[in-house]
Structures are given as structure tokens and as C-alpha cells.
Design brief:
Blueprint (H helix, E strand, L loop, with lengths): L6 H12 L5 E2 L7 E6 L2 E6 L18 E2 L13 E4 L5 E5 L5 E2 L9 E4 L11 E3 L7 E2 L8 E3 L2 E3 L7 E3 L8 E4 L2 E2 L4 E3 L2 E8 L2 E3 L4 E3 L6 E5 L5 E2 L3 E3 L5 E4 L11 E5 L4 E5 L16 E12 L3 E3 L6 H7 L10 E7 L9 E4 L14 E7 L3 E4 L3 E2 L9 E5 L4 E5 L8 E5 L2 E3 L12 E2 L2 E4 L3 E5 L9 E4 L2 E3 L5 E4 L3 E4 L4 E4 L3 E3 L2 E5 L2 E5 L2 E4 L3 E5 L3 E8 L5 E4 L4 E14 L3 E5 L2 E8 L8 E5 L3 E5 L2 E2 L5 E5 L4 E6 L12 E3 L2 E6 L12
Parallel strand pairs: 9-13, 10-14, 13-16, 14-17, 15-18, 16-19, 17-20, 18-21, 19-22, 20-23, 22-24, 23-25, 24-26, 25-26, 26-28, 27-29, 28-30, 29-31, 30-33, 31-36, 32-37, 33-38, 36-39, 37-40, 38-41, 39-42, 40-43, 41-44, 42-45, 43-46, 44-47, 45-48, 46-49, 48-50, 49-51, 50-52, 51-52, 52-53, 52-54, 53-55, ...
Antiparallel strand pairs: 1-4, 2-3, 2-8, 5-6, 6-7, 9-11, 11-12, 34-35
Length: about 650
């Protein structure tokens, strides 16, 4: 049977053809008729292939597959070209059976199926299951497939293709042991592979393509094996919601294209023992994302197995492979939210596990806990980034060390601690950039004996325009080799924050809340500091520092000497000193108006006071003379205003 294209369509196809610089073909199906278009002629040809024909070279996932071998047909005896008496061109195949669509005179043809264009080779089976019948099995009476225009059964060792269509069911119920070659879910959303059947593909599983993104969910109880997994096209997603009742997942090399996601949803999908641990069996690469979603707490306990080991391998086993993104995702706050714990070698400088991830995203209601002492490589130019995209989930973490009684709880996006939890531990370093992508939080746990416990960010901390809350009884330190960037606020509501990093690109406000302490050892001339509540402490450290403003009530300490310059604000509280520091410190008011409201000085604090030209200091005294501030020296080149509230005075006292 010959087909006739409408004139408009034929002209459009001819226009497209003339713009091509190389011969082009689209994949076709057995038993269909095809239009061959070359130059100004269009003819219908029936290929006459049988179901026994098998071609070794498969079309790839591209909808338009380019075939090019020059302007002339090879004269090698392995090639043949048939031309019927009426001038219709038939197939041209080489010795291995590969079909080529070409013509020596015109250089190229377009092959257009009278069915539909799809990314498959000539012997592929196309899924044709319906709402009433959608079983994938090896039963020869099950004809939920199409080969060309004919119904067919899956018998094994065939390439199978799933494409949306009228009446085509997107639910596929797997029964028995299924052994296809390649599996392609070309496009469309809502695809679900369910059932108890085992899928063991000798070739690759491909999801998505140039025809559009695809979404596939694996929810069955059988195992899934393949010799490769490829996610193609932005928006393509493969979601795994269950685990094999026996055996493991084993995909081989997982290639994740830009904008694609491989999602492990639920504790079963992320179960360590359900993934082959050999790094040569499961390893991933590409600019896409691996997503851990609603998995609960994932903890490899320092062992060389589990999600990190299975997916990422090591620099020594697969040095060329990196993963664009690892995402921790939770649909709601609580114990079912995702918390990933990095232990042992998973985070260390040898790039075991997490080291090959370029971007790690902690999304809303999820948490990342680091207990591996070191995250990232200690040398070289590495730009791994940890993105904190929300506040973490409420979860309790039970440490197994006998000296720690009970569980420590943390409600933060990033939680820093260690199994040893020794009181003098200071070598806990993160060699990744840390970036806030939303209001977020970092918690540093206390040591086992309650003493300070320190984790250091060695590179850049960028808070952006968001609020970063520091929690926990330990100390978060920003190393002098790094920098603090952004305009958002940093709220310290527990433990201590020590900033040695460059602060020249930070213009936000550091807010110190009750029972918290901040030490600034770098210039902070663009930074405002607020003290709010009892036992709030601001230590201005080893360099001469400036603040754009200082406000609130607390304790101001300067060590070891030097000066603190403020340009505005109101401070009430105590000018104190650190233990063992007997040096003289100077408070300088420069270029603005600063108020000391009912300020006291601790014994032998050795504070001097300077008011520069153009500045004004308001000194408010509301108590008796024995609590008035004592300054070792006072230099006033600007204005000094002293306000005395005598209403508080009683008989026998005098105003200071």
C-alpha cells in the first residue's frame, strides 16, 4: 500500500530537508510504510521486513538519528541497493544488518512512519497495554505490545519502548523474570512499574529524550538490574519508592543529565542493604541530581556501604565521575523527614563517598549531620558547595558512646558533631563553601562533658539576604583563610560564633541572644552587632576593630588590648575583660552618635574612652556613683554629653 502526504506537509518536510547539511533519518517500525523524501520527489515505499530481522546497531535516544557516510553509496560488496522497475527505492543494509536510508544521487532521505516517530530500533517492542490489560510478562498469550502495526508478545532479549498514546496505560504490572535488552521510557508523565516481577536488562535503562521529559516510578517488590541507567532531558525524573524483597538494586553506571532527578523516596528505597555496594556496580555521574526524599535518618555508621558508597564511589575508583547535585528533601517536618549522617571516611579528604558531589542541597525540613571530622579535601582548588535551603527537621540523634547519656536533639539544617565528642577536639573542619538559599540554621553540638566543641568552616560562608541561625552549645568558627559574605542577619542563640574570616563583603547584623557569645577577630566596619538578653558577650579580639553600630544589653570584652571603634548605636551593660588580660582597651566613638546607657565597668577592666572629632558620646547615668563607669583615660575631640537622672538618688548620696 502506498501513502500520499498532503501537499502542505510535503512542502514543509522538503523545506526542513534542504536546510540539513548531513543525511538524516528518523527511527521506524517494522511493517509500516514510509515516505522517502529527497530533493523534489516523494515516494512511498513498503520495506517488507519480517519480524525475524534483527539489526545489531541500535538507534540511540535521539528522536532524529543522524546517519552520514559521504555523498555516495559505498561500493563494497557488503552493501546492496535495490531499485524496483517503477523507481521506488528499497532498503539499503550493510553486512551486519544495519539499516541506512540514503541515495547516491540526492545524498539523503527522510524516513517517516505512518504510525508515530519514536526513539527505537527496527526490532523494538512498543508498549500497548490498556487500562484493562497492562501486564508485562513472558506469557506468549499476553499481547500488550506492538511490533509495527501488529500485536506482539514479549519473549525476552528484546528492546522495549514506552511512549504515551491514546488508550495506552502508563501503569505497567511486572510479572515473573523479565530479561529485555534495552528499556526506554521515551516521554510522558505518570509511568509506574509495579508488581512483583524482576527486571534484569542486559543493556541500558533510558528515561526521557529529545521528545520531551519523562517521569517513571519504580514501586514494585522485585529487583531491578541493568547495565547502565541514563536520565535524559530537563524535567526527567526516575523515582524509586520501594525496595526488592530479595536481592538488590544494581544499575551500573548511572548517567544523570542536566535538570534530571533520581529520587529515592522513603526508608525502603534508601535502605543500605538494598543497593549493591561494589563501586564498579553502582556509580553515578552527570549534572543532574540524586534526591533522598522522606527517608528518615540515613546513617552508614562509618562503613563502606550504603547510599554514599553505592552511588559515588571514590576518586581512586572513578576519578572522572562527579555528581552535580545531591538533594535532601522532606515533604514535612518530623521523624520521617530526611536526615543524612556522614560518618567515617564518607566525608574525608580521600573523596570517599560524598567528595565527588559538587553541590549538596539541604532543603526545607531536612538535615545534614557531619560526624566525620573532615568534609572535603584539605588541599587543592575545590569548589564543592553546601546549600542550606531551609530549616532542618526535629530529630533525635542517639550517640553510641557510653559516656554520653541519652540522645542529643537538634533542629537545624546542618548539624555538626562527632562520635568521639572529646572535650578538646578542635580539628573538625569543613572544606566546602556554605551558602544559604533561604532562612536556615547550623547547630554545633556540645562535647560529652559539656565543654565547648568547635567546628571550623575553612572557606566561604555566604548568608545571602537570609537569616542564618547558629544553634547548639558548641562553637562555630570561620577560618581566617575564608570569608563571610552577604547582607542577611546572623543570629547566635546558643554556644559561640568566632569570626576570623574576612568580613569586608558582609553588611548584615550579628544578633547575640541569651547565653551566647560572639568573637570578632577580623575587621567588621560594615557590620552591626546587637546584644539581647542576659549573659550575652561580644569579644572584640586580636585586631583593632570597627563596628557600624553596637546596640543592646550585654557584656563587651576586648582582648588582648587594642581598640574598638563604633559609629553609632546604644549599649547598656558591662565593659569587661577576658581572664588574664590586663592590657588597656579603648572604646572609640567615630563619625556618629553613640550612647552608653547605664554602663558599668568590671574591676580592673582598663577601658579608655576616645570621642573623635565630629562624633558624639551620650553618657547616661541613672545609678549611684559606685556603679558609674570607670575609665582609665578619656580623650574628647568631639562632643561628650552626660545625662544624670537624680530621681534615683536617696539621702546621703551624691550624683557622680
Amino acid at each position: 500500500m502506498k501513502l500520499h502526504l498532503p501537499t502542505g506537509l510535503r512542502k514543509a518536510l522538503l523545506t526542513c530537508l534542504t536546510a540539513l547539511t548531513v543525511p538524516v533519518s528518523v527511527p521506524i517500525t517494522i511493517g509500516s510504510s514510509f515516505w522517502l523524501i529527497s530533493g523534489e520527489r516523494a515516494q512511498a515505499v513498503s520495506w517488507g521486513l519480517t519480524v525475524d530481522d534483527h539489526f545489531n546497531e541500535l538507534f540511540n535516544e535521539d528522536v532524529w538519528q543522524r546517519i552520514q557516510y559521504g555523498t555516495a553509496v559505498p561500493t563494497n560488496a557488503a552493501w546492496r541497493k535495490n531499485q524496483s522497475e517503477d523507481g521506488e527505492w528499497e532498503e539499503l543494509r550493510d553486512v551486519d544488518g544495519t539499516l541506512h536510508v540514503a541515495d547516491a544521487s540526492y545524498g539523503s532521505f527522510l524516513a517517516i512512519s505512518n504510525d508515530r516517530v519514536m526513539p527505537a530500533d527496527l526490532v523494538s517492542l512498543y508498549w500497548a497495554g490498556t487500562e484493562d490489560s497492562h501486564v508485562w510478562s513472558t506469557d506468549e498469550s499476553n499481547t500488550d505490545w506492538k511490533k509495527g502495526d501488529e500485536s506482539a508478545a514479549f519473549t525476552g532479549s528484546q528492546d522495549v519502548v514506552f511512549m504515551p498514546g491514546d488508550g495506552v496505560s502508563t501503569t505497567v504490572d511486572l510479572h515473573g523474570d523479565l530479561a529485555p535488552e534495552n528499556v526506554t521510557v521515551g516521554q510522558g508523565t505518570g509511568w509506574v512499574f509495579s508488581g512483583s516481577g524482576n527486571l534484569n536488562a542486559s543493556g541500558k535503562i533510558t528515561v526521557g529524550g529529545e521528545g520531551g521529559p519523562a517521569e517513571l516510578t519504580l514501586s514494585g517488590t522485585g529487583y531491578v538490574h541493568s547495565n547502565g541507567l541514563s536520565l535524559v532531558g530537563e524535567g526527567t525524573k526516575l523515582t524509586i519508592t520501594s525496595a526488592p524483597s530479595s536481592d538488590t538494586f544494581n544499575f551500573g553506571h548511572m548517567e544523570l543529565g542536566d535538570g534530571t532527578e533520581l529520587v529515592l523516596r522513603g526508608a525502603d528505597a534508601a535502605n543500605f542493604d538494598k543497593w549493591t555496594h561494589s563501586q564498579n556496580s553502582n556509580y553515578a555521574s552527570g549534572a543532574g541530581s540524586i534526591v533522598l526524599e522522606d527517608t528518615g535518618i540515613i546513617n552508614n555508621n562509618g562503613q563502606q556501604k550504603g547510599i554514599l558508597w553505592a552511588f559515588f564511589g571514590t576518586e581512586s575508583t572513578h576519578p572522572e565521575h562527579t555528581i552535580g547535585n545531591l538533594r535532601l528533601r522532606s515533604s514535612a517536618k518530623g521523624e520521617n523527614g530526611t536526615t543524612l549522617i556522614i560518618n567515617g571516611e564518607m566525608g574525608n579528604e580521600n573523596d570517599h563517598g560524598i567528595g565527588v558531589v559538587e553541590n549538596l542541597w539541604v532543603e526545607e525540613n531536612s538535615s545534614l549531620m557531619i560526624r566525620s571530622r573532615v568534609l572535603g579535601k584539605t588541599s587543592g582548588n575545590h569548589n564543592n558547595t553546601l546549600h542550606l535551603a531551609g530549616h532542618g527537621s526535629s530529630a533525635a540523634f542517639q550517640f553510641t558512646k557510653p559516656e554520653l547519656e541519652g540522645a542529643q536533639t537538634a533542629d537545624a539544617a546542618l548539624i555538626l558533631g562527632h562520635n568521639e565528642m572529646s572535650s578538646d577536639e578542635t580539628a573538625n573542619n569543613i572544606y566546602w563553601n556554605v551558602t544559604a538559599e533561604a532562612d536556615t540554621s547550623i547547630s554545633v553540638l556540645a562535647a560529652t562533658n559539656g565543654n565547648a566543641y568547635t567546628w571550623t568552616l575553612m572557606k566561604e560562608l555566604n548568608v545571602g539576604e537570609y537569616t542564618l541561625t547558629k544553634k547548639g552549645a558548641g562553637t562555630l568558627k570561620l577560618d581566617e583563610g575564608g570569608k563571610l559574605v552577604g547582607t542577611g542577619d546572623i543570629v547566635v542563640e546558643g554556644g559561640a560564633l568566632q569570626v576570623d574570616a574576612n568580613m569586608s563583603e558582609y553588611t548584615g547584623t550579628i544578633k547575640i541572644q541569651e547565653d551566647s557569645e560572639v568573637t570578632l577577630n577580623a575587621d567588621a566596619s560594615t557590620v552591626s552587632v546587637n546584644l539581647d538578653g542576659e549573659n550575652t558577650v561580644l569579644n572584640v579580639g586580636k585586631n583593632n576593630n570597627s563596628l557600624s553600630s553596637l546596640n543592646g544589653n550585654g557584656t563587651l570584652k576586648k582582648t588582648p588590648g587594642g581598640q574598638l571603634t563604633v559609629s553609632g548605636g546604644t549599649f547598656s551593660g558591662t565593659l569587661g575583660k577576658n581572664d588574664g588580660d590586663d592590657s588597656t582597651s579603648t572604646l572609640v566613638v567615630d563619625g556618629g552618635t553613640f550612647t552608653l546607657d547605664n554602663v558599668t565597668t568590671s574591676e580592673d577592666s582598663n577601658w579608655g574612652l576616645t570621642v573623635n572629632d565630629g562624633a558624639q558620646l551620650n553618657l547616661k547615668l541613672t545609678d549611684s556613683s559606685d556603679t558609674a563607669p570607670q575609665f582609665g583615660s578619656v580623650t574628647v575631640d568631639g562632643k561628650l554629653r552626660i545625662d544624670v537622672d537624680t530621681s534615683a538618688l536617696v539621702d546621703g548620696t551624691t550624683a557622680p
